Amino acid sequence: NSPNSRVFNVTGEGQALLTSYDIWTDALAQNTAVIKTFNVDVADGFLNLNFTTIVDNAKVDFIQVTPTIPVSRVSLRDSATIFVSETAGNATITVVRTGSTQEHLTVEYTTNEIVGAGAATAGSDYTQPNDVRANTGRVVFEIGEAEKTFTIPIVNDTLQEANETFAIGLQNPSSGTLGAPRTVLITILDDDSPTSISVSEANVTISEASPTVTITVQRTGNINGISSINYATSNNTATAGLDYSAMSGTIVFAAGQATQTISIPIVNDIITETNETFRVTLSNAMGALLGSQTISTVTILDDDLNLGSLTRQTAVSGLNQPTALDWTPDGRYMIVAQKNGIVRLVDNGTLRATPLIDISSQVNDTRDRGLLGLAVHPDFANNPYVYLLYTYDPPETAGQSGLAAPDANGNRPSRLVRVTVNLTTMVADPASLVVLTGTNSTWAYTSRPDGNSTGDLSILPSGIVNGTTITAPASQIDVGVQDNDPDRIGTQNQNIRDYLADDSESHGIGAVHFGLDGYLYLSNGDGTSYNFADPRAVRVQDIDNLSGKVLRIDPITGEGAPGNPFYEVNDPNSNQSKVFYSGVRNAFRFTFDPITTLPVIGDVGWGSWEEINTGAPGSNFGWPYLEGPNQTASYQTLPQAVSFYNNGNINSGSPSNQTAVFPILSRSHGAPDNANAIMVGDFYNSNTLMFGDINGGTLYAATLNASRQVTNVQVFDSNISYVVDMEMGPDGNLYGVNLVTGSILRWT
């Protein structure tokens, strides 16, 4: 009958559901019902709930359990590079399905070349699949199957050459959604050189929280005989016994065996320290030569932050695929976007049953699409606006079937809208919806809403006049500086004004945030294939096209913000007037550097690199011609790419003469980082940026120096996949959004 008179904890399947829960703060009166809803994963068919008393006894009147059918999620088994001898005949790749297995499912795969020395060539080194179409194969999951394999034929030539690498990617599952990783590297070990043994990776990075680190040792040349080699660890800045376990021994390769692994235990201490390294060295090869790479340096990423102990808690549960969150300025209300288009309200820690708004009928909720971005106006008391960024199902989808139907995978546009909230009820009226960006994101300007460009290069790009399926009056066209569809005859540079393209099941809109300058920033991906090289991605380099950009607009009018690098005083509604950054692939999440006040974006990579980027207004981050620190394989031979490189990494015809800006942090898909899909969170303090790997489930803290370059990366949490957003809350704590568990996390 008073605060703190009944307080308890609740866990479900070992997951904290309620912590120090004071029921009076919810009920505010005696004999008042309080209903709490949670999503809990149950693996063995038995739901385990535990109530732990803190004050008085925990009491419940009823428990209702509603089974849910999990989403089927398809991905590669892991992102570790696959090593295969040239004599093996085939490289074998494993695809896994999690969630529901109670349906027939297919998924496609393709091969892609990488760039630089050691790149394998299709036809000469491996054979591309042709099951579905050129360079496309298909994996079939029958009911009940959770794991399948497919093979890529390896060409056994007679050339003495270096080891060569190519990439594999997944696309187009027939149902469910794609998880991550979606790409993996295949390295072909040459068999025509003298037999030699070496370590596969010169550098390997591992979290201190990981129990072991694995070193791959490879044998090239003739592997028909038996070979052996010794190995031993040695200190560098890491100390055996304190940071890792010293090991030494002999590896024996059986006849025909190309790779072996060494597993070295890592010591997880509680000391805050810099990242430390040790070495694994090969010696005394028998039946083979020592290869050129005999030392692998292991970097242990410290997980004992000088930020203090960050303990993960579940702050809110019971959500359905949450994607983003923000708060009202007074801190009372947390507003959470769900992927399906329903916006939920958390009032002082309690999830309300009544949503703030439901726009699910407008949201295309499939694969990586949906309602992904949300922002609250910083002067909410006087401007009670909430901003929503989502892939859009135009009214014409109603009554359609196949790819053109609501929530289907056909090509779609995107929108940023503003809704007005009633400050008394904290409910927004759908009639208050105002489109700020994407006013021309319509069915008429979308190319083949009944088709899916993700795996089909024959479909014309959306948002670009082609004279047949897409036409527009001159007032709705911004003429670009380049040909945005280089595979077609003629110059396709008539961009539809204020159109956000999503000709892909991924790489559409991302995040929306208010900058410290009071303007609204939003990210929009390239909207093209996430798997194979797609020439339509060159539109990212055209400042008169909104694909692959970070935009900066007026939050009331939607016009480009004065001071934008390409702002046109006489035409603030032009595409280029809104552009702040260009050359991004999939800037799914971004934040602001508190020192420079500039956006810091996490750009999800293709075959080789994940990126964190920032730069001056007008910065071009180089996609699709640059990925990480390198030129991009399979795109680098496009005429536009060659011109870009020859012009000093400047797009020809662009009004900017600024050379492309390289990332402040590049993380490799293979060793040493084994990164998958980057997610930039928020700055924990002025020099510490929190970010994560969505699939890998590791969360990091990056230290920036005075020049705003990353000088150190540490781990602050691990084994927690699908954290898709992280923001600092008004209480000074870091919050995270877990898409799969339907929960909001808090680190205190």
Provide tags for this entry.
748 residues; 3 helices; 5-stranded mixed sheet; Immunoglobulin-like; 4 domains; mainly beta; 6-stranded antiparallel sheet
Describe this structure in words.
This protein is an all-beta fold and 748 residues long. It folds into 4 domains: 7-55, no CATH class; 73-189, Sandwich (Immunoglobulin-like); 196-301, Immunoglobulin-like; 312-747, 6 Propeller (Neuraminidase), CATH 2.120.10.30. The protein is 2% helix and 39% strand. The chain contains 3 helices and 52 strands. A hairpin with a 5-residue loop joins strand 36 and strand 37 (520-524). The mean pLDDT is 93.
List the helices and strands and how they pair.
Layout: E1 7-12, E2 15-22, H1 23-27, E3 49-55, E4 73-76, E5 82-85, E6 90-98, E7 105-113, E8 137-141, E9 147-153, E10 164-171, E11 177-178, E12 183-189, E13 196-199, E14 203-207, E15 212-220, E16 227-235, E17 248-253, E18 259-265, E19 276-286, E20 289-290, E21 295-301, E22 312-316, E23 322-327, E24 333-338, E25 342-347, E26 350-351, E27 357-358, E28 371-376, E29 385-391, E30 412-422, E31 427-428, E32 434-437, E33 477-479, E34 494-496, E35 500-502, E36 509-514, E37 520-524, E38 549-553, H2 575-578, E39 579-582, E40 589-592, E41 599-603, E42 609-613, E43 626-627, E44 630-631, H3 639-646, E45 665-668, E46 678-685, E47 688-693, E48 699-704, E49 710-717, E50 723-728, E51 734-738, E52 743-747
Parallel strand pairs: 4-11, 5-12, 13-20, 14-21
Antiparallel strand pairs: 1-2, 1-3, 4-6, 6-9, 7-8, 7-10, 10-12, 13-15, 15-18, 16-17, 16-19, 19-21, 22-52, 23-24, 24-25, 25-26, 25-27, 28-29, 29-30, 30-31, 30-32, 30-35, 33-34, 36-37, 37-38, 38-39, 40-41, 41-42, 42-45, 43-44, 46-47, 47-48, 48-49, 50-51, 51-52
